[in-house]
Each structure stands twice: as structure tokens, then as C-alpha cells.
Amino acid sequence: MSLPSSPPLLPEQDLPTLPTFAPIASASNAGLRALNRKRQLSDYGSPSSDPPLFSDTTSDGGDASHYEEQPRRKRLVRGPWWNVGKGRGQSLRRSMAKTERLRNGDSGVWMGSDESEASSDCLISSQQRMQELAMQDMADEEMSSDETLPNAEALAARLVHGCVDKGKEVVDLSDRGLIHLSNATLAPLHQLIRPSFVGVTHPPSEDEFSPLTPSIQLFLSRNQLTALPLELFNLTNISVLSLRNNDLQHLSPAIARLNKLKELNIAGNNISYLPWELLELLDRRGKHRQITVRPNPLIEPCDLSGPSPLPKANFTRVMQTEELARCTDTRDTVNNLRCKYVAEQGTLSMRGELELRLKLGRMLRIQYLQEASKAGRELKLCREELIYLASSAVQYFRGDGTPLRRTGSQHAGGEEFAACLDPTATAPSGSGSASTAPSLFELALHSLQTNFNLQDFLPKMSTFPGISSSLASAIRLAAANTHGLGNETCSTCGKHFIIARAEWMEYWFHGWSSQRELTSEAVLPFLRRVCSWGCARPSEAGEFRC
Amino acid sequence: MASSSDYVTLVSNDGFSFVVQRSAACISPVIKRMLDPKGAFMEARDNTCTLQNINGMVLEKVCEYVYYHEKHKDARDVPDMDFPTELCLELLMASDYLNI
């Protein structure tokens, strides 16, 4: 047999070489039928009523002899001719375009004829082509992300993409077994817009003018995340964020950036303290926010189990409002209570002290509210009380960030953040110790951070003589801040700083006013970090937020 | 010579000397220890510190900072001090050494 037994080889590479089409080959060997159907090269100039179909028979896998035996099966080809036989694997593209399996006008070889049907085809097919190109881009993106990311995250990335495409505001990535979440996965959420009103059947009314800014609801619960991607804190449109049941060790202070947050759930993590910024979120000032913190292994100021040490009859009695109004100085009243207790029962335990402070805070709060209502000011109250209880001893740091040795004996017990009565007792003495001015170290580091690209400098750092290890770590921290979430904010003066000069834990009561006794569930620890030793001023007993 | 005058002299490694107030200079624990009248260092006798690893240009900025710190000790909104960018790293190392 003179005919080739296998189909002609198709070009595999991308180069637009002309494939060896069977039809042309068959024109010489096969019968008249094929000759009639197919134009020969010399026919190009002459007008023909043949429908401008571009056919490809090579996929049928037969030799030319098939043409005589069975009716020819034509396969319509989409795309330019050099893609023939290439795109078999792209089933996604095919399925997306399946509904409009029309001839593609961009065959590149045959011109369209005068038939009206064909010209309308051209219009449709060019539209379709545009869609296809878009689909192809998307498919490529997804495929590339498949290769670089682990499975669980690739799936998450696809879900995020799906939500962005459909304009869905609820992004549910819960229960996906995520161990790590990268910035690239969440970044598409920046492009999410609320779907606008699509129907155009009637003239638009006023209700339809709504903002396109979405209120994203991001659910990351029941994964194994140990850290959150930085990009999360840039998504300021998040209104609901659930991080329930993950393995987070701490919550970044950057959480305060999500100022549209209405609901935050960090329950079931490994968090032992909260950032100071979360107190500002809890202090809602009229905004309704629901923040679920427990259960978490939060540290406690002191042992809060068991019944209150204060005798019920005299101490935890509810003060009548008239009685409160008569109290000119509430602090004196509480001091009297303390003296009375010491006289009757001996020394007051830390627990008792905390309960007295809680009482003081409550009384001051009620007095403040009474005054405000008398003055006719409008107040937006939250139902829960937020009252300062105690601080741990302040840990001071040197200019380069190394901790200053504590002179007190508090550190010995291993309870690093236990509440104490005089938090600033360990303050370093000497001139300029209580200054609020930034250190020269901080100023120079800040200048270095803003004027130079520290990322380039880091590898060369070891070649510089005279850079101590603390200096090197400070520079590394500054470099990390520029590429991350920026510098920290001082919790006292609000200035940005790179090196914290002091930190301590503050315990605040967060619960209902009906609660008489202090329980461990109602006390939240907040870590405060400040920019200078002068800013290391813990809150005063009796401080409260409305 | 008086063991503790109100002014002390800081000398850089290239021979520039700066006369600054003792109270201002003593914000650095290192300088303070050197100039401690109770200590037996030669610096305490002469009221002069020679800083072997700081050059004149940097020491000038350090002295400027020392007064800046004195001025803004209790101020609430402290404006940041400006330095020439090329001195940043040297200043950082100097401040690390002087612990200020």
C-alpha cells in the first residue's frame, strides 16, 4: 500500500508551521468526492459557494482510505490553524465554550463568504473568541498557581478567585486543612466589588444606587494556621473575620486596621494575651461589634478561682444611685473600704484588691454617666463594662531593645506577667530615664529605614565592622517592618516606633454590670508596648471605657 | 582642677573637641560612667572624654542630639531630629556604643 499507515505527524511546537493536512494529500490520491469538497490551492481566487468551513480530519486517526469507506466526519476547529491538534488537553476551555460550538472566524486561511448566515457567524464568533481568550488567561493563571502552592492552599486560592469573579462577599475558607496562607491567595480580595444591580428591565430607582464597596466576610475557622498573612490586615473591607479553631499564638496589633470589623472570632486558638489595640476595638463607641475571645489560654493576673475574699454584707452591696450622687470623692470611699477590710481581716489579697478596683471603676463609670445625662450629652453605651483592674510590672528595654535587668523580685516566680500593685517600681533611675524623647538609636534607625533599602543592606551587614548583635537584630527588625505591616504604634502617645522601650500587661474587666464577683472569664489581658520610658505609664485604678 | 565642673569636653578620634553641659552629656550611661567624679578614671579628673570610635562629624550630631534630648525631655509631641542620610549608619553605631 502506497498510503501512509499512520496519520501525518502534527507539529508539536508552537511555531506556526503549516500542518500537513490530510485533505490536501487526499486530493491527489483519493477519489473525486474529496476533490469536490475540497478546494485546491489554485481555487483560492475564484468565488465559491462552499461554506467556508475549515475542517480537520487528522484527529480521526485514519488514513486516506477512510474517506471512501465512511462518511467524512468533520471536526470544527476553533482558533488559529496552528493550534490544531494542540489544545486537546484543555478540556476546561472546551466545556466553557461548548454551548456555542460555532465556527471560529479566525481560522486564518479562508475568508468568509457573502452568505448572511456566515457573516453573522463572524460577529458571534469574534465575541466568543474574546470570551475564550479571557477564559484561557484564567485557566493559565490557575494552572500556574497549582504548581507553586500546596493542595489545600491552591483550592483556597481557587475559592477566593471564584468569590471575586461572582462578587460574593462571603468567602468561606473554613475547614480546608490550611496550614499556611500566603499573601497571594488573599490579594485578589482587594478587587472584589459588590455585584451591581444587573436587571435593566425598568428604570433605576433610588434603592439601586448603592456603593460597590463590599463588606467581606472571611471565614478561616477550623484550619491549622499558625500565622496570618500580612495581606489580611490590608483588606480593610472585612466586616466579619472568623479565626476560630486555629493554632495562632498571638494576634497582631494590626487588627486595629480593620476598622469596619463588626464581628471577630478568635476563640479556640493558642492565644495567651491580646494586643492593646483590641481594647480600642472592644471600646466600641456606639459601633456594634461582637468580639469572641474565649476559649483561649489567656493569662490571669492572679488566682481568680474560688469565692471572693471580700465579705458580702458590706463590700459587694449594690450602691444606690442617690448614695452614689452623694459621694463627692469615690476614691476616698473605696480607700475607706480598703482600710476597713485591713482592720477587720488583715492584709488584703491581690484578688480582693482587684475587686475593690472593679467596684471603684463601676462607681466612677456610673457617676460619669449621670453627669453626662445631666449635661444632656448623648452617649452611646455598650452593654459590657470595660474597667481597668491591674498591670504587671513594667519591663524596660534599653535603646537597642535588649531588656533591662529587673531589680524587683517579681521575675523570680516565673509569673512574668502577674499583676502587681506598683508596676513602675522597677523603673531605671538616673537622669533622662523618664524622658519621652526618642533615643538617638531610634532616630538613626528610623532615618536608615526611610532613606535606604535595608533589604539590600542586610546581606552585606556582616562585612561591616563594629555592628553588634543587638544592632544587627534591630536593623533586621526595621527591614521586616518596612516590608510588613509598618512600625508599631506607641500605646500611650500614638507615635510609631521600631524598638519598644517598655512593655507590660494590663488586665481589664470585660463583662456585665450585673456580675458581682470577679471571675477569670471576665478578665482580659492586653499587652502594651510604648516608645519611650516616659510613656511607660500604666492606666490608673478606676479607669474605665464607656 | 575642679573635679566636677558644669561643662565637659568630648573629643572625637580625629581631634575635634566639643564642650557640652555635663547634665546633657550624662544621658549616655557610658559617658556618665567615664566622668563619674567618684570613679578613678582619668577622664573624670580632666573632665574630657576621648571617644576613639566616633569621628568629628558624627560626634557633632551626637552633641546636637544630647541637647535635643535635654530640651524635649518632658515634651509631649516631640519633633523628630533630622540627620544627613549618609551619617545614619555611623550615628546608629555611635548611639549603640553610647547607649543613647
Description:
The complex is a heterodimer of chains A (546) and B (100). By secondary structure, chain A is α/β, with parallel strands linked by helices. Chain A folds into 4 domains: 22-136, no CATH class; 149-194 and 212-292, Ribonuclease Inhibitor (Leucine-rich repeat, LRR (right-handed beta-alpha superhelix), Alpha-Beta Horseshoe), CATH 3.80.10.10; 312-383, no CATH class; 389-545, no CATH class. Helix content of chain A is 30%, strand content 10%. In chain A, β1, α7 (183-186) and β2 form a beta-alpha-beta unit. In chain A, α5 (116-148) packs antiparallel against α6 and α11 packs antiparallel against α12. Mean pLDDT of chain A is 74; it is low at 22-35, 58-67, 95-105, 115-119, 139-146 and 408-414. With 100 residues, chain B is an alpha+beta fold. Chain B has a single domain (7-98), classed as Potassium Channel Kv1.1, Chain A, CATH 3.30.710.10. Chain B has a 3-stranded mixed beta sheet. In chain B, α4 (56-71) packs across α5 (88-98). Chain B is globular and about 40 Å long. Chain B starts with 6 loop residues before the first strand and ends with a helix. At the A-B interface, α13 and α15 of A face α4 and α5 of B. Chain A: Residues 1-22, 38-72, 87-115 are annotated as: Disordered.
Radius of gyration of chain B: 14 Å
Global outline of chain A: globular
Number of helices of chain B: 5
Give the biggest sheet of chain A.
7 strands, mixed
Share in helix of chain A: 25-40%
- Give the uncertain stretches of chain B in residue-range form: none
Query: Which pair of chains has the greatest number of interface residues, and how are they split between the two chains?
Result: A-B, 31 and 33 residues
Mind telling me the CATH superfamily name of chain B?
A: Potassium Channel Kv1.1, Chain A
Q: Give the rounded overall mean pLDDT of chain B.
A: 85
Helix and strand run of chain B = EEHHHEHH
Helix content of chain B: 40-55%
Cα radius of gyration of chain A in angstroms: 36 Å
* Uncertain stretches of 5 or more adjacent residues of chain A: 22-35, 58-67, 95-105, 115-119, 139-146, 408-414
Number of domains of chain A: 4
Measure the end-to-end span of chain A: 96 Å
Mean pLDDT across every amino acid position of chain A: 74
**Beta content of chain B:** 5-15%
Task: Calculate the terminal CA-CA distance of chain B, rounded to whole Å.
Answer: 29 Å
Compute the number of structural domains of chain B: 1
Region (Disordered) (chain A): 1-22, 38-72, 87-115
Keywords (chain A): Leucine-rich repeat, Repeat
Pfam families (chain A): LRR_8
Biased composition (Pro residues) (chain A): 1-10
